[in-house]
Design goal:
Layout lengths: L11 H7 L5 H36 L3 H4 L14 H9 L2 H31 L6 H10 L14 H10 L7 H4 L7 H11 L4 H9 L4 H12 L1 H16 L3 H6 L8 H4 L11 H21 L1 H9 L5
């Protein structure tokens, strides 16, 4: 039955006329665009993977092959023993455990504290909230490096020395439980996209603010929390300045500081250094590939409404 005011139905000839004909030239043009785009992406991927590839093949070369010019693009006789020598050259296991402890605890502290602060800035209404948030946002220019930056390095070292925390893991872990301005901003922008009607419905049902945060908002924030956790874990895993300043005993060194032992006074064991660096990078690659779905979702979710 025809509704009043609806356009008249198109006959068969009109429907054929409205269809855009697909020509051979159009197919070739679309194919060229797709091939060109994928070729460009492959070139860019190869460009970014080149350092990883060069590090890996250097780890498999012998010292004699490393001194050859021009360098070989693939080791003639792969030296898999370099990885064993790299682990035994320094107490790699001890440094690895120290790095894991600092990275895990620091990641938990950064993610938890940043989420709590971001929740207060996005889901709660209180006087002066926007002014305080602008102040926190402005501190990004001070905390340009996390967890240690050159601006606050000296006063923090004096403070931690008076507290007796030097040569312990506390200066590298405790500050992470006070939030990070960049991660607070990232989580706040994500939390603002969650409809307030969900929280209001939970309050009508009798839920308090802590229950709303833990049972409703927190599960919805998993993608953004995964992004913050990955960023924080990578930064803590690769941190060199913090352990170098606060850790004095070699038994407490991390992998980033321990890699400096491969560089001697007169010679550098490049094959062992690259082998150890490969072992250090592998956990980061595993973490990224394991959480890449949450990572990509958390990065792209806030870009489209």
């Amino acid at each position: 039955m025809k509704r009043p005011g609806s356009p008249p139905p198109l006959d068969r000839s009109s429907r054929r006329a409205r269809r855009r004909p697909v020509t051979r030239a159009g197919l070739l043009r679309a194919l060229k665009e797709k091939v060109g785009t994928r070729a460009l992406l492959l070139v860019m991927a190869a460009f970014f993977l080149m350092p990883l590839y060069w590090m890996t093949i250097t780890a498999l070369k012998s010292p004699a092959e490393l001194s050859q010019f021009p360098p070989t693009l693939w080791p003639r006789d792969p030296q898999w023993r370099n990885f064993v020598d790299a682990v035994t050259f320094i107490p790699f296991g001890r440094y690895f455990l120290n790095t894991v402890v600092i990275a895990v605890l620091g990641t938990i502290g950064t993610t938890l504290s940043s989420f709590l602060v971001a929740y207060g800035f996005s889901r709660l209404r209180w006087p002066g909230r926007d002014i305080v948030f602008v102040t926190v946002l402005a501190s990004i220019f001070i905390f340009v490096r996390f967890p240690v930056n050159p601006i606050t390095m000296v006063p923090l070292f004096v403070l931690f020395a008076k507290m007796g925390w030097v040569n312990t893991f506390l200066p590298l872990i405790v500050p992470t439980f006070f939030g990070n301005p960049f991660y607070i901003f990232l989580l706040r922008q994500f939390l603002l996209q969650i409809p307030r009607e969900i929280s209001d419905a939970a309050r009508i049902d009798g839920a308090n603010e802590f229950q709303i945060m833990r049972r409703i908002v927190l599960p919805l924030t998993k993608p953004a929390l995964a992004v913050v956790a990955i960023f924080a874990a990578f930064m803590l895993w690769n941190d060199f300045l913090g352990p170098l300043i606060y850790l004095q005993d070699q038994d407490r060194y991390t992998l980033s500081v321990g890699l400096s032992f491969y560089q001697g006074t007169h010679d550098t064991e490049w094959h062992l250094l690259m082998a150890a660096s490969t072992l250090v990078v592998l956990p980061q690659l595993a973490i990224f590939f394991f959480f890449q779905r949450y990572f990509l979702e958390g990065i792209t979710l806030g870009s489209v409404k």
